Hints:
The structure is a homodimer. Chain A is an alpha+beta fold. The first copy, chain A, is built from four helices and five strands, in the order E-H-H-H-H-E-E-E-E. The first copy, chain A, has one domain (about 5-130): Thiol Ester Dehydrase, Chain A (Roll), CATH 3.10.129.10. Chain A has a five-stranded antiparallel sheet with strand order 1-3-4-5-2, covered by helices on one side. The longest helix of chain A is centred in the middle third of the chain and has 14 residues, at about 50-65. The two termini of chain A are about 20 Å apart. The interface between A and B is large, with 39 and 39 residues. Strand 2 of chain A pairs antiparallel with strand 2 of chain B.
Amino acid sequence: MLSVGQTHQLTFSFTQADVEAFARVTGDTNPIHLDAEYAVQTVFRRPIVHGMLGASVFSRVLGTEFPGAGSIYLSQTLAFQQPMYVDTAYEAVFTVQEILPRSSARIETKIMEQESGKVVTAGEAVVMNRQLIPNTKRS
Amino acid sequence: MLSVGQTHQLTFSFTQADVEAFARVTGDTNPIHLDAEYAVQTVFRRPIVHGMLGASVFSRVLGTEFPGAGSIYLSQTLAFQQPMYVDTAYEAVFTVQEILPRSSARIETKIMEQESGKVVTAGEAVVMNRQLIPNTKRS
C-alpha cells in the first residue's frame, strides 16, 4: 500500500527511433524533434525529445510499477524546464505527497538528467488505484 | 500571429493499434489499455486510451498547426475527467487566453467527445514560438 513519503525511481533513455515512433503514433511531427538541420538553427542546436514522450514515463511508472497495474490517471501537471535529448540517461523520481480520499494519491513527479542531477521536467500527478492506495474517507 | 481569444479545433480519433504502438514506444503496458478481459472487470468495461496519448494531441497541434512549427512547450496541465475510447471521434479545442512576455502564450486546451460535447480532458498549455507569437515586453 502506498504511504506518504514513499519514493520510487526509474532510469531510462530514449533513442531517435523512439522519437520517430512517437511522432508517427501521435502525429506530432514538429521539426524540432525530427529534423537535425532545422534543430541546429534553434537554441537547442540538435533535435529534442517531445516533452510529452518524456512525460509518458510518469504514465508508464504510475501504471506499471508505482503504485502499479490498475492505476487510473486523474491529473498531471508538467513544467518542461529543460530540453531532453536522445541517448541520454534520465531518472524519473516519484514521491508520495498525500493520500487522498477514494484510494487516490498526489505524487510529485520529476525527471532529472542522471549525470548532472538537473531537473528537466517537474510536476505532480494524482492517481487512483483501488488495490494499491489505501481508501481513506474524507473527514 | 496569435492573439487573445483566437481558437482552433481538430477532430481526431485513435485505433487500438495506436494504443498498442503508444504502449510499445512509452513502455506503458498498464493492462487497462491493452487487455479487454482485464478491462471488463473495471469501472470502464473496456480498454481505455492512455491519457497521455490523448493529451499528445495538444503537443501535436501546438507544434504543427496552432501556432505551428517551432513551438517550444513550456508547460501543460491535464485533468483526465472522463475515459477516452478507441474508434471514437474527439475534438481538440484551443483558445488563446493570454499573450505572455518573450513570444509565449497561455492557451486553454481541451478534448471533447464529438457526439456528446462532453469534456474528457481539460487543461492549459504555455508555449513559446518566436515566429508565431508576438514578442511583448513585461511592463
